[in-house]
Amino acid sequence: MLFVDKHRPKTLDSLTYHPDLSSRLKALANGDFPHLLVYGPSGAGKKTRIIATLKELYGPGVEKIKIDSRVFTTTSNRKLEFNIVASVYHLEITPSDVGNYDRVVIQDLLKEVAQTQQVDLAAKQRFKVVVINEADHLSRDAQAALRRTMEKYSPNLRLILLANSTANIIAPIRSRTLLVRVAAPTTDEIVDVLKGVGKIERLEVRDKLCQRIAVESGRNLRRALLMFEAVYAQNEVVKDNTPLPPPDWEALISQIADEIMAEHSPARILQVRAKLYDLLTHCIPPTVILKTLTFKLIPKIDDTIKADVIKWSAFYEHRLHLGNKPIFHLEAFVAKFLRLLETYLMDMDYDF
Amino acid sequence: MASNFFDLKKRKEAAAASSSSKQKTALSQAADRPVPWVEKYRPKTLSDVTAQDHTVSVLRRTLQSSNLPHMLFYGPPGTGKTSTILALAKELYGPELMKTRVLELNASDERGISIVREKVKNFAKIAISTATATNASKYPCPPYKIIILDEADSMTQDAQSALRRTMETYSKITRFCLICNYVTRIIDPLASRCSKFRFKPLDEGNARLRLTSIAEAEGVRYQEGVVDALIKVADGDLRKAITFLQSAARLHGAVKERTGDDMEVDSGPKGGEITVRSIEEIAGVIPEKTIDDLMQSMEPRPNGQAVYTPVAKIVQDIVADGWSAAQVLLQLYNRLVFSDMLNGNQKNQIVAIFSEIDKRLVDGADEHLVTLDMSLRIAGVLGDTGS
């Protein structure tokens, strides 16, 4: 079992950081529980907190989960297969799995859940909880379908929406839920967690190494734990200066960044393209590629053109979402970057 | 007990007693069961509806004349559209008759063209149920049914066109009420068949009145300025304000226990009271300090140093803290557009940036890059003041 899963806190009390938030969730779970919209960057512990809250609500029963596969039929008679993770007390769904048909799932499934009461009379709460993952990827229609359902069936149903940002959640939903922000842990908090895990696993914990991992992870605890485990798995003796192996794709992207900086020619773009294709075929999301590439390039260039590079990076990232062939936009960014750099260097020449 | 067993009369009595006591407990349970305050304080009659004087007075007249046009309610969320029509229906028919006379469809129901053709048409067709004498004496019970199409702007164009003729054919026995946020999403032929009612955002006075009365009724303790903060973050959306109030009350446990009389007087710090900051936290408002820092970092540096490094650092922290980019945008907008430090030209450029960034956010672009881009571009505008 990975450290990430093995040492995941199971109760609200054992969560290490954001004590305020934990005590609030606890107060909510023991009082009257509203609909929640939990948002925050990935690896901040949104899901962990929600599972702990569910446990607080219903007791250990929520940990006995099973996976159901349900078939929904759309109005145009298309069959959709949809997986539901469920315990006796709660359901967990990821409607964005079915793309544009998420509305059908929301309408059918939530109504069905909402119209039945809790079967188990011994249950601590009368309502069921439905956890909706990736709520920011829900289509507008699906969100509209949630609106009245949330009000009408509130005695039988509570929703917990999980999202990375609230930008794509429509206002009517936001005004019906309690917004809970889960901030990413600070580097110090990550260091504490790493040390704690190291102690339980009886590893030789190095302060400086933990510090470096925490910084490198970009305040993402999941990533920090994975890196931590990787370092100890790959090296027999771990020292303060043991190199941290980056993931393969990140290594490849920094290689691309180096290549771009080394030579500015059409031939180089062709070379880079092969690598970009490689990344895409390994299912690295194009947004991640573009973002990582940008932040790898930034330290290598002069301060004056950084703002421009960010501008075009944001521009092409937006295009990625609108268009449907990522490689065009990634390539366009590379070409644009070369152009910017070249113009900048030319200007320098003229100055002399 | 055994002797009782054959005593039918006694058993019946006992059963009645137990069932009545059961009923009582069930009733009290239902009352105790936590209800969102939004539902609890939903206006029960037309006169309870806050701040929509014009609409209410027109509707009141229709109550007396017992003739109703087709209606189209539009306005921003949380202004009482759904509440008004539900209250009106209740006043017209009373709770019992409402079940047979009113059909409510909203976006959570399938409302494709087939449903409009079948369900809506069938309901529109059926003859009007007769009102019982008791109902007729208490309520006007006019001879038509009402079909409420809530959130009508999420209906497809086709489904809307399918409504057109239906609305006219059965207009003798059926009235339609369409409710939407954006009147432009309703196709013209439908809009022209309805009399339109615009619901305006709640003004401050009415919102304040409502909030304080709810806080009073629930026995919520709050600090000075909380109501103002609520009104400010809710922006005319009363439902939002009430939800926030309830959430804050839950978080702080600021609701008074109303068991004993001496508890009322006791206003010790045990339960805690709602603070302005907690309202802002619930609403996702970024602390002024963070925005200050960001503004500071965007200020042009002396001797032409680039602003990239400080801005990038603060933006990274903002993103890691989970603040939403849309909120950053909104707060920066409020700061910059009303700032005296900038000239008109700069403001023009900045507003153009905001509009583009907002579009990108709605399209689902990456928040980190977008926020960074926005900050750097604004910094660029702030940089060239002269010329």
Automatic annotation (TrEMBL), chain A:
It holds the Pfam family RCF1-5-like_lid. The keyword Nucleus applies. Its main location: nucleus. The lineage of its organism: Eukaryota, Fungi, Dikarya, Ascomycota, Pezizomycotina. It comes from Orbilia javanica. The keyword Nucleus applies. Residues 32-197 form the AAA+ ATPase domain. InterPro entries: AAA+_ATPase, DNA_pol3_clamp-load_cplx_C, DNA_Rep/Repair_Clamp_Loader, P-loop_NTPase. The gene is RFC5. SUPFAM superfamilies: P-loop containing nucleoside triphosphate hydrolases (SSF52540), post-AAA+ oligomerization domain-like (SSF48019). This is Replication factor C subunit 5. GO terms for cellular component: Ctf18 RFC-like complex; DNA replication factor C complex; Elg1 RFC-like complex; Rad17 RFC-like complex. SMART domains: AAA. It is found in: Nucleus. GO terms for molecular function: DNA binding; DNA clamp loader activity. Keywords: DNA replication, Nucleus. Belongs to the activator 1 small subunits family. It comes from the Eukaryota. Coiled coil: none annotated. GO terms for biological process: DNA repair; DNA strand elongation involved in DNA replication.
UniProtKB/TrEMBL annotation, chain B:
Residues 1-33 are annotated as: Disordered. It is found in: Nucleus. Residues 15-31 have a biased composition (Low complexity). Pfam families: AAA (PF00004), Rep_fac_C (PF08542). Its main location: nucleus. Keywords: ATP-binding, DNA replication, Nucleotide-binding, Nucleus. Residues 67-203 form the AAA+ ATPase domain. GO terms for molecular function: ATP binding; ATP hydrolysis activity; DNA binding; DNA clamp loader activity. GO terms for cellular component: DNA replication factor C complex; Elg1 RFC-like complex; nucleus. One of its GO terms (biological process) is DNA repair. Belongs to the activator 1 small subunits family. This is Replication factor C subunit 2. It comes from Orbilia javanica. The lineage of its organism: Eukaryota, Fungi, Dikarya, Ascomycota, Pezizomycotina.
